[in-house]
Design brief:
Strand content: 25-35%
Strand order of the largest sheet: 2-1-5-3-4
CATH class: Alpha Beta
Largest sheet: 5 strands, mixed
Number of helices: 2
Radius of gyration: 12 Å
Structural class: alpha+beta
Number of strands: 5
CATH architecture: Roll
CATH superfamily: Beta-grasp domain
Distance between the termini: 38 Å
Length: 90
């Protein structure tokens, strides 16, 4: 199963960076993000705290729908798109 993960360039606090788009596998958002980190270990600091929890200022959107509660457990299927963005400041 292939699930695309898009990461907005502001997630890494580097406005000059490019948006990241990586094909992952998993049955839920958590598994897909774990596969993402396996492929791109440097992203772990930008996404997770020391307890491997998604940082408080990150939003998970699955197929255009914001997942506010227990996003990691959200089931995904082949062809789904997970987007990670940073909450706007202000």
């Amino acid at each position: 199963m292939s699930v695309k993960v898009n990461i907005d360039k502001m997630v890494s606090d580097n406005p000059a960076a490019k948006k990241i788009s990586i094909s992952t596998t998993g049955n839920n958002v958590g598994e897909c993000l774990a596969d993402l980190i396996r492929q791109q270990p440097a992203l772990k600091r930008a996404l997770f705290n020391k307890n491997d929890e998604l940082l408080y200022d990150k939003m998970v959107i699955v197929n255009g729908n914001y997942e506010s509660e227990n996003a990691a457990a959200k089931t995904v299927k082949d062809g789904d798109v997970i987007t990670i963005i940073k909450f706007p400041e202000g």
